[in-house]
Amino acid sequence: MRLVRRKTYRAFPELDHFDDATCDRFMWHVASDRRYKVISRSAMVLAFVIVGSAGLQVVRLVTWKLGLLVLSPAWQSWLLPLEVGLLLACTFLPAAAAMIARDIVLRHFLRRRFVKVRCPTCGYSLLGQRLEYGWIRCPECGRDTSIERLKLCGPEDLIPPDAGAGVNGARCR
């Protein structure tokens, strides 16, 4: 799991030699995939509902058990702060679970993207390589391959070094 303030792409060594602006463009390109949006939102809602309903059941069980017990006046003073603390936890934990689910889906999509952007001959990563006349030359083995053979959506998947600030290529289906 990543820290909230840490950039997601810094968890992947494949992106270490790219600057933040290039990685932001690449992440935007991955996140604009329609399948990623549907799956990540579904996972977030599912995690929120499961953790939220489980948390509410815990709150109901604890307050019911404490209500059945004959509490001394000293313990009754702790009942309200305990209930408030449990309710706060039940609002924080579902949100945290939703963010964790989103990060898991994002990691899955990034790993799939990195596997696609490899030389079919030697397996060398082609991230950052220039596309010349529709062909990409592998710096490791020297063989040429095309975007179609790699089943990429466009040159944005390669993170070319001369990519502009705007990404307006074809969308993956």
Return the structural class. mainly alpha
Give me the side-by-side strand order of the main sheet.
1-2
Number of strands: 2
Mean pLDDT: 76
Radius of gyration in whole Å, from Cα? 24 Å
- CA-based shape: rod-shaped
Description:
By secondary structure, the chain is mainly alpha-helical. The chain folds into two domains: 98 residues, no CATH class; 45 residues, no CATH class. Helix content is 55%, strand content 3%. A two-stranded antiparallel ribbon has the order 1-2. Helix 2 runs antiparallel to helix 3. The chain is rod-shaped, with a radius of gyration of 24 Å.
Layout of helices and strands, plus pairs?
Blueprint: H1 20-31, H2 34-68, H3 73-116, E1 135-137, E2 144-146, H4 147-150
Helix pairs in contact: 2-3
Report a brief summary of the structure.
The protein has 173 residues and is mainly alpha-helical. It has four helices and two strands, in the order αααββα. It folds into two domains: 98 residues, no CATH class; 45 residues, no CATH class.
Key words describing this protein structure:
173 residues; mainly alpha; two-stranded antiparallel sheet; 55% helix; rod-shaped; disordered C terminus
